[in-house]
Amino acid sequence: MNLMKAHIHTSPYTNDKFGEGSKEMEKRVVALVHELLSLTLWKKAPIIKLGHFRREFNLPERLNVMLL
Fold this sequence. Notes:
By secondary structure, the chain is an all-alpha fold. The chain has helices spanning about 1-5, 25-40, 45-50, 65. This is PORR domain-containing protein.
């Protein structure tokens, strides 16, 4: 339980400009992809389709590499 409290969660809804490759940016991207997938019917989507949201949500250019 203490381990879970030690992790700082980053909101996918913040518009913070984290550095490319930083832990905070990775946490935000994971949270954002989780939110997007929760809105889909089958809870999955091709990585190419997720790339369409790159500009709107300030996702990294190499989103597919990060997710794989």
